């Protein structure tokens, strides 16, 4: 939920130069903690979105490819939002349409102070428009600007072609060393690893 992703603790690796070159112009609103590229905006979760989160994760593709529980309710999401606000090893943003303000999805980070793991999902109506790539590029830049993490990682189910494309387009590189099997929802998922080093360490 929110920042709940599988952890991996392997060693850092080399950077992908495409990431630095692909960063879009950004508008940062540090007082509110929001960041946007003119098309999507990332902002802290508000209490009013707890019910939306709980409803949206019932989507079959979110259930198929993320660890969010299908029985999640708004009270549980609210508790997770409250925890997130004071957590020092987690970050999470609501993805919004920058123009309309419509909620589009979730993007989150858990970390151990050195390396972090990113996860995301979009509501069905927000898919197929490059939103996840924009959100991941923005979030990655935000993380490297606001933390000292040296590497970001993510893992996608081997059947989740859309997520794998998003990772590569956002500058992450395939990292077969982080491929692995993950138990989720009573079954074992074959996962493919992706990684991105802090740009100045490239
Ligand atoms: C994965 C996800 C975030 C992708 O976000 P998105 O902004 O919709 O990504 P896009 O629609 O731009 O798709 C990226 C690419 O994957 C392709 N794609 C989408 N669904 C696909 C599928 N089922 N099979 C193969 N390719 C697919 C798209 O065609 C696109 O490629 P193209 O631009 O070359 O045509 C979104 O689909 C989602 O929320 N899925 C459910 C939750 C999830 O999987 N989260 C990630 C867990 S690792």
Automatic annotation (TrEMBL):
Residues annotated as domain N-acetyltransferase: 38-199
GO molecular function per UniProt: acyltransferase activity, transferring groups other than amino-acyl groups
Keyword Acyltransferase: yes
Keywords: Acyltransferase, Transferase
Domain of life: Bacteria
InterPro entries attached to this UniProt entry: Acyl_CoA_acyltransferase (IPR016181), GNAT_dom (IPR000182), N-acetyltransferase (IPR051531)
A Pfam family reported for this protein in Swiss-Prot or TrEMBL: Acetyltransf_3
PANTHER family the UniProt entry points to: [RIBOSOMAL PROTEIN US5]-ALANINE N-ACETYLTRANSFERASE (PTHR43792:SF8), GNAT FAMILY, PUTATIVE (AFU_ORTHOLOGUE AFUA_3G00765)-RELATED-RELATED (PTHR43792)
Family: Belongs to the acetyltransferase family. RimJ subfamily.
Protein name, entry field: Protein N-acetyltransferase, RimJ/RimL family
Annotated source species: Streptosporangium canum
